[in-house]
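PROTEIN DESIGN WORKSHEET
SECTION A - STRUCTURE
LENGTH: 328
TOKENS:
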């Protein structure tokens, strides 16, 4: 077993070199935000999707665009608006008069990197069209099914400030996102660097450093990273504590309406494996789980009215759970 783990770690080191190149290229354009950049890369390696929440102007669009430019991948930005229709996302059939036949006109969903900008501004039908594509990795247009090209990576953004003219995503749909990342304002020093870069004629370009074939190999390898039975038990305890906090001597049963779903269990393990790969390891340690637990769980713990009235956040609940659950 030790030899197998050593071999996995050696391979992880090789892949982590590729990851460092991607990170370095992104940081040519994106100032700071190293944690968000790493989490985007983890989601990409894991084959998941990301829900990004932050105020306007915090480079959410720029991050996903820059990440796509480090790969030889197609990118589409979809601006969600109240008048958008499902056909505007997935496509439709149009009649060709010259050929006297219907032809499939594919929509912007047929790209490898999708930015769903302000997803909560579109009506539920449009949201469902996108989220179905995320889940099934395929699209049905007038009875015909089309597979989406791999890798298929969706980053949806949401502005938490404005609520007028928005449609809140149902919990079941938000659950389909691997991560929910919070983007905050930059530090003062980062703000100065933003000024230096973006108020001159400096050419900010990135190189394609990660071939798609290499990314596919990394995604396959991620699932093979070793995870001990004790880590499985640790993750199971964390998830179970969100559903039955009393069993773990946590006084949270009046604060949690619904606990995390089985999707959280799966993504917590897969993300921990990708996190281990980023840190040159072919095996998962408890710290990997702890570091990504907030991003996996914050949108999957539904708070009660009492918790919201007390201004208790899901992050605060996750902190209490991680402090209580015994670390293997």
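SECTION B - SEQUENCE
RESIDUE ASSIGNMENT:
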């Amino acid at each position: 077993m030790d030899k197998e783990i050593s071999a996995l770690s050696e391979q992880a080191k090789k892949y982590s070199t590729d990851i460092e190149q991607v990170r370095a290229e992104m940081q040519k354009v994106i100032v700071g935000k190293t944690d968000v950049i790493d989490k985007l890369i983890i989601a990409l390696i894991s084959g998941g999707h990301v829900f990004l929440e932050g105020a306007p102007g915090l480079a959410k669009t720029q991050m996903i665009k820059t990440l796509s430019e480090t790969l030889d991948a197609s990118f589409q930005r979809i601006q969600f608006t109240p008048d958008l229709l499902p056909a505007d996302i997935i496509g439709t059939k149009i009649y060709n008069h010259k050929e006297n036949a219907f032809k499939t006109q594919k929509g912007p969903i047929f790209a490898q990197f999708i930015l769903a900008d302000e997803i909560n501004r579109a009506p539920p039908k449009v949201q469902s069209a996108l989220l179905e594509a995320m889940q099934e990795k395929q699209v049905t247009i007038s009875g015909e099914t089309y597979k989406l090209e791999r890798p298929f990576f969706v980053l949806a953004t949401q502005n938490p400030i404005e609520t007028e003219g928005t449609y809140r995503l149902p919990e079941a749909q938000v659950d389909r996102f691997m991560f929910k990342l919070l983007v905050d304002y930059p530090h003062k020093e980062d703000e100065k660097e933003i000024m230096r870069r973006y108020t001159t004629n400096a050419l900010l370009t990135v190189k394609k450093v990660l071939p798609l074939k290499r990314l596919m190999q990394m995604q396959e390898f991620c699932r093979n990273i070793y995870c001990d039975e004790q880590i499985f038990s640790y993750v199971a305890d964390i998830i179970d504590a969100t559903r039955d906090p009393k069993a773990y001597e946590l006084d949270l049963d009046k604060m949690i309406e619904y606990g995390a779903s089985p999707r959280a269990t799966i993504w917590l393990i897969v993300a921990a494996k990708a996190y281990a790969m980023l840190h040159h390891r072919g095996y998962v340690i408890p710290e990997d789980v702890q570091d990504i637990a907030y991003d996996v769980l914050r949108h999957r713990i539904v708070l009660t009215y009492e918790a919201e009235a007390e201004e208790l956040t899901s992050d605060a609940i996750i902190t209490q759970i991680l402090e209580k659950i015994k670390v293997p």
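SECTION C - NOTES
Residues 2-26 form the longest helix (25 residues).
The chain has a mean pLDDT of 86.
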